[in-house]
Amino acid sequence: MASHSRHTLHQLRTAVNRQPDRFVTNVYTRMFAIDPDLRDLFGVSMAAQQIAFHRVIDHVLEAIPAESGHADLVEFLAQLGRDHRKFGVEPEHYHVMYSALMGEFASLMEGYWDPEAQQTVSQAMMLVTGVMRGAAETATHPARWTAEVVEKYRISRDLAVVRLIAHAPLTFNAGQYLEVHTPQWPKQWRNFSPSIPPNPAGELEFHVRAIKGGTVSSAIVSETSVGDVWTLSQSHGTLHVDRDRPVLMVAGGTGLAPLRALLIEMSKRADAPPTHIFYGMRYPGELYDLSVLRRIASTNPWLQVTAVSEEERDPWWITAVAAPAELGIDHRIGTLADVVVDTGNWENHQVLIAGSSQMIEATRRKLIIAGVRASRIQHDPV
């Protein structure tokens, strides 16, 4: 890319990031002015959508002028295009988005918006909308699936297990997460990881913790009932086991779900590598799935399980299903990051981490300091 074009896109990115909230609001206002029916595709609150939109535009304006990485950018945009089908986005809507973006960019760069700048930005936005539209039109799998809740039970006041059966075969791999919306919040999509691998019967199981202030998760824990129909969209995530080296798994809370699915899938194979999973929560009684891990380990000698809790004893309001000692599982006290690093040398291991963003960051940082290569550490976006 010519230096003038790179300079133009750099100027534009700087202008966008000067007032990102205003930029996004103005773009959506332009879109809805061109096609008012587009507003119906979004939920009442667009805060999360607006944040994501700004991140995409910022990433594009940073990546296009770069000398390399364009293949990754194209795949990123293609994934966005396939993903946006779940919102009801049609091919003609991409022209609306292009027009709204170009109108706002012209306003932002007033005084610098000469024919050359306009052409540079136009080509960049045509790349964005063209790749997204093309990927959406050529996608081979459905935009959505539906599944019916067949069982739901609460493990604690803020944690529930929900089991469903899909109405058509789902496409995902063990360790991935799916986009989900429920009838209580039909336009609010959330990411949940199935805790079992895909199977021909279309069975699904999700472990959901009600997040403080979280509308969707709280509604699932308190309101979801048998017979509800959930809508599911495409899978994401790259957690996997390579089987060419020993594996370290670190699971915090309901972050156990994707790792549990991988363990169940591994138990069906004869070549599973030696695996050590650390499963942690604040209190030992919150380790709700220890008995399942114990059953997997009892028939698979390659699996070692360590329970971790920050506190040694449960408060009065927690009733443990089974304590680690009762299950014959090693129990350590401390944070997951500290216990994992203090327990062994993991330099030669493939590492998979799942849980809260804080736990993932802390564990990843300490493992790298301890000598584990960053390239051997997997986790989903935090």
From TrEMBL:
Residues 142-242 form the FAD-binding FR-type domain. PROSITE patterns: FAD_FR (PS51384), GLOBIN (PS01033). Its EC number is 1.14.12.17. Keywords: 2Fe-2S, Heme, Iron, Iron-sulfur, Metal-binding, NAD, NADP, Oxygen transport, Transport. Its cofactor is FAD; heme b. It catalyses: 2 nitric oxide + NADH + 2 O2 = 2 nitrate + NAD(+) + H(+); 2 nitric oxide + NADPH + 2 O2 = 2 nitrate + NADP(+) + H(+). InterPro entries: Cbr1-like_FAD-bd_dom, FAD-bd_FR_type, FNR_nucleotide-bd, Globin, Globin-like_sf, Globin/Proto, MRET, OxRdtase_FAD/NAD-bd. It comes from the Bacteria. SUPFAM superfamilies: Ferredoxin reductase-like, C-terminal NADP-linked domain, Globin-like, Riboflavin synthase domain-like. Pfam families: FAD_binding_6, Globin, NAD_binding_1. Residues 1-137 form the Globin domain. In the C-terminal section; belongs to the flavoprotein pyridine nucleotide cytochrome reductase family. Belongs to the globin family. This is nitric oxide dioxygenase. The lineage of its organism: Bacteria, Bacillati, Actinomycetota, Actinomycetes, Mycobacteriales.
